[in-house]
């Protein structure tokens, strides 16, 4: 038997809260259909690619006094992509719903992510297994993976595995790419009249899988609280030692939601927002200038310390860097066939070859970067063939450039302060944390609701639980078509249908709050110290949700 920590023992006892409509019983639900939908963009292209699943209506659940027991069936579940707190509770909610619907229902977990359904690797998830993972972090109950489900061969193999297990429904728990896979698989099964439904669940700590019906992706709440605790601890240290500038990079591949939320929870001196940088067409030099001004201003007030939050994806939002990376992605897609590059005898020679292959303006930008950054840009690419931005030490690049700027100012007599730096990257620390009460409740509801969608014969939908700033019993449950969230984007040099990422809206209430307090936070030490996630105690401490949700739903 596994040894459990005292906290894990207590968390296993926690009973997640459900929306009222779901808590009255899975077999008492009734469904209301809304208007037909369309994709967020590229309607013509998306409708042609999803002939069988495009234009479906939104749905919402309510309850009746009538109870309807349905035939037993087998369901499969897949964890896909990076870990996020609460994944185990999605599976627990799915399991409890299907067993409540019919005790003879079975749940199969595919091992290692989407590859599990292709290779036929699975386990039957029993109550004994599920009970060991309730309200815990991680994805270790069945593991995860990043295999793309997009080819005819993969779909056929998945169908064969489902037929062997008599599976008629699949729940894919993942982010925007994983739910794009779910949409493609649902469409293929419909085209083949396979009789297998596919439902998605919105997972990502990045917070960029959302819209009016998907108010937040699960894991965002817990991850940002975890990072905010760490940032708060560093702020307390900085305020005590009074001698370091801490540059803290926070996970968030494309959007700055994590950095923005952590800023609202902790009030650092400088917070960079990638979407703002892009909107204002700020150069790398502009970004460095803004940080340098804050350093100098605080130094003149006798404060040679501070906190800078840096979103992980910042570098590719800087216009000249973004253009260069886009061009570089195209070059790297073909570079393996370039004999000069393959036979290059040194890293420097490779850098020169890359520079020549880039368009002149992009080549000049690439050439201006330190060799450390050039090397990181050429590392292994992500599943889409793109540069892995998370491997670029943006925080160290900014430190080096700020130092250089300050040294020149010191030579000119315009700066006399001290600049000592420390760099941090908070990412993996938040992905598998014990889920907060909010995420424990939300994830359980998403899983329970996912089976409700299956129970009503729906496919090509994503589980949607809304009204999340209200108490859990007032949450609304239903689903929206996956195609509703899609647009066309360039991947591996080709345009493909993908779920559109939700970026920070610089004209929205969340960013505006940061903007309104920026000047005050630069000079005054307004640091907040949120502390560790609380699981027990008054609602205003244990069940609080994110500042982002509060401001968006205000």
Structural key phrases:
Arc Repressor Mutant, subunit A, 3 domains, 23 helices, 554 residues, 4-stranded parallel β-sheet, Rossmann fold, alpha/beta, 9-stranded mixed β-sheet
Blueprint (SSEs and pairs):
Blueprint: H1 6-12, H2 20-23, E1 29-36, H3 43-49, E2 57-63, E3 74-79, H4 87-101, E4 106-110, H5 115-119, E5 122-124, H6 127-131, H7 152-165, E6 167-174, H8 176-191, E7 197-202, H9 220-241, E8 245-250, H10 257-266, E9 270-271, H11 274-279, H12 284-300, E10 306-311, H13 319-334, H14 339-342, H15 347-357, H16 360-368, H17 371-377, H18 394-411, E11 421-426, H19 428-431, H20 437-455, E12 461-466, E13 476-481, E14 486-491, E15 494-499, H21 509-523, H22 539-542, H23 547-553
Parallel strand pairs: 3-4, 3-6, 6-7, 7-12, 8-10, 8-11, 9-10
Antiparallel strand pairs: 1-2, 2-13, 4-5, 12-13, 14-15
Helix pairs in contact: 4-20, 9-10, 10-21, 12-18, 13-16, 15-16
Q: What value does the Rg take, in angstroms?
A: 25 Å
* Beta-strand percentage range: 15-25%
Q: Give the N-to-C terminal Cα separation.
A: 47 Å
**Structural class from helices and strands?**
alpha/beta
The first-level CATH class name of the largest domain: Alpha Beta
Widest β-sheet, arrangement of strands:
1-2-13-12-7-6-3-4-5
**If classified by CATH, what would the architecture of the largest domain be?**
3-Layer(aba) Sandwich
CATH topology tier name of the largest domain: Rossmann fold
Roughly what is the average pLDDT, rounded to an integer? 95
Tell me the overall shape: globular
Which stretches of 5+ consecutive residues score pLDDT under 50?
none
The biggest beta sheet is recorded as: 9 strands, mixed
The number of domains is 3
Helix-residue proportion: 40-55%
Number of strands: 15
The number of helical elements comes to 23
